[in-house]
Amino acid sequence: MKVKIFHENIFTLQQGKKRFLATRNLTPGLEVYGERLVQVDEAEYRIWEPKRSKLAAMLLKKLPSPFTTTSKVLYLGSATGTTVSHVSDIVQQGVVYAVEFSPRTMRDMLPVCEERANIIPLLADASKPQSYANVVEPVDVIFQDVAQPNQASIALSNVQHFLKPGGYLLMSIKARSVDSTAKPDTVFKQQLKTLLEQDNSKLELVKKQKLAPFHIDHLGVVVKKTE
């Protein structure tokens, strides 16, 4: 396979006419969720499937990646660690604070955290950021993937608590989780208004893009904290 740099610490692997998104494995020889491992020269890569990861879909839909090797990341809605593990690969010298509300789901993610020293698991409610403010430091990036009706409000609250000036919020808005009866475009407009037009939000929209065909009725959003 041919390896090309896609963004910092994010790659594409080319095999014939097929192209795969991938990250370099922080824990060679260990898979997380049954993903394909590919050895190229001295490095091992993990195939990153966009249908299983909103963040991977956002990158393939050409939304910008603010992640660097040393980024400090707050991940809201970490679930069992599928995407968190790829973020862990990207920010190899940074840290990922992984917030998950469900004890059962967190239990499934803990083995991933045991193998990856740069993930700090937090069993907490993302709508109550003050409950983990004694653990999480100011961060460069917040990524949110939660299925709640108040997604924008949750994101905004965490931005105000933890995001550094000049930092970025990436979020996947799930229209059906906000209002299953409204048109997705109506939901997206309402959520963006909540996110960007609140007094003192200090956020500016960088780019938005629907995530179909990878995820139907989802909108990927990248915003920057201006000060």
Automatic annotation (TrEMBL):
<comment type="similarity">
    <text>Belongs to the methyltransferase superfamily. Fibrillarin family.</text>
</comment>
<dbReference type="InterPro" id="IPR000692">
    <property type="entry name" value="Fibrillarin"/>
</dbReference>
<keyword id="KW-0694">RNA-binding</keyword>
<dbReference type="GO" id="GO:0003723">
    <property type="term" value="F:RNA binding"/>
</dbReference>
<dbReference type="GO" id="GO:0008033">
    <property type="term" value="P:tRNA processing"/>
</dbReference>
<dbReference type="GO" id="GO:0000494">
    <property type="term" value="P:box C/D sno(s)RNA 3'-end processing"/>
</dbReference>
<feature type="binding site">
    <location>
        <begin position="100"/>
        <end position="101"/>
    </location>
    <ligand>
        <name>S-adenosyl-L-methionine</name>
    </ligand>
</feature>
<feature type="binding site">
    <location>
        <begin position="82"/>
        <end position="83"/>
    </location>
    <ligand>
        <name>S-adenosyl-L-methionine</name>
    </ligand>
</feature>
<comment type="function">
    <text>Involved in pre-rRNA and tRNA processing. Utilizes the methyl donor S-adenosyl-L-methionine to catalyze the site-specific 2'-hydroxyl methylation of ribose moieties in rRNA and tRNA. Site specificity is provided by a guide RNA that base pairs with the substrate. Methylation occurs at a characteristic distance from the sequence involved in base pairing with the guide RNA.</text>
</comment>
<comment type="subunit">
    <text>Interacts with nop5. Component of box C/D small ribonucleoprotein (sRNP) particles that contain rpl7ae, FlpA and nop5, plus a guide RNA.</text>
</comment>
<dbReference type="InterPro" id="IPR020813">
    <property type="entry name" value="Fibrillarin_CS"/>
</dbReference>
<keyword id="KW-0698">rRNA processing</keyword>
<protein>
    <recommendedName>
        <fullName>Fibrillarin-like rRNA/tRNA 2'-O-methyltransferase</fullName>
        <ecNumber>2.1.1.-</ecNumber>
    </recommendedName>
</protein>
<dbReference type="GO" id="GO:1990259">
    <property type="term" value="F:histone H2AQ104 methyltransferase activity"/>
</dbReference>
<feature type="binding site">
    <location>
        <begin position="145"/>
        <end position="148"/>
    </location>
    <ligand>
        <name>S-adenosyl-L-methionine</name>
    </ligand>
</feature>
<dbReference type="InterPro" id="IPR029063">
    <property type="entry name" value="SAM-dependent_MTases_sf"/>
</dbReference>
<keyword id="KW-0819">tRNA processing</keyword>
<keyword id="KW-0489">Methyltransferase</keyword>
<dbReference type="Pfam" id="PF01269">
    <property type="entry name" value="Fibrillarin"/>
</dbReference>
<feature type="binding site">
    <location>
        <begin position="125"/>
        <end position="126"/>
    </location>
    <ligand>
        <name>S-adenosyl-L-methionine</name>
    </ligand>
</feature>
<keyword id="KW-0808">Transferase</keyword>
<dbReference type="GO" id="GO:0008649">
    <property type="term" value="F:rRNA methyltransferase activity"/>
</dbReference>
